[in-house]
Amino acid sequence: MMLFAEQRSQYCDYSFWLMCSPLDPNIRPSFRGGAKRRARNPQPQADGMAYYVYILASRKYGTLYIGITSDLVRRVYEHKIKMVPGFTKRYGVDKLVLFEVFDEPASAIAREKELKKWRRDWKTRLIDEQNPNWDDLYNGISN
């Protein structure tokens, strides 16, 4: 009979816990891998915070993934190292081919939903217009 911790370790990779300080009780692991501060009474969003809608591809005209985040560099890095099991890890989707910046989370969410409803050829045409060679844009934003 396996203990709960042994069962949990079979399904989860807790290597990201090393990033968390064990002495700080206000830091907890995120399900997406990065450490997040625990907020009991969250404060309003700071002015000037950016929200990103991004498209990842496995290769040119390959599998596409559309997502939203407030920290584009961290999120794409998580996709690249395949930190979280799921669609992008299963299909090798880790190449940032397009992103759009928004000031308001509601407008970013609306754009993400709009893009997800688009037909595939509309999405590839959008990427072709902005990034004709389907270059990985991660190196340009991570420096």
Automatic annotation (TrEMBL):
List the source organism: Bradyrhizobium yuanmingense
Name the domain of life. Bacteria
According to the entry, every stretch annotated as the GIY-YIG domain falls at: 49-125
* SMART domains referenced in this protein's UniProt entry, alphabetically: GIYc
In terms of PROSITE patterns, this protein maps to: GIY_YIG
Annotated family? Belongs to the UPF0213 family.
Q: Which UniProt keywords apply?
A: Endonuclease, Hydrolase, Nuclease
InterPro entries of this UniProt entry?
Answer: GIY-YIG_endonuc, GIY-YIG_endonuc_sf, UPF0213_domain
UniProt GO MF annotations:
endonuclease activity
Upper lineage ranks? Bacteria, Pseudomonadati, Pseudomonadota, Alphaproteobacteria, Hyphomicrobiales
SUPFAM superfamilies xrefs: GIY-YIG endonuclease (SSF82771)
Entry-linked PANTHER family: BSL5627 PROTEIN, UPF0213 PROTEIN YHBQ
In Swiss-Prot or TrEMBL terms, this protein is called: GIY-YIG superfamily endonuclease
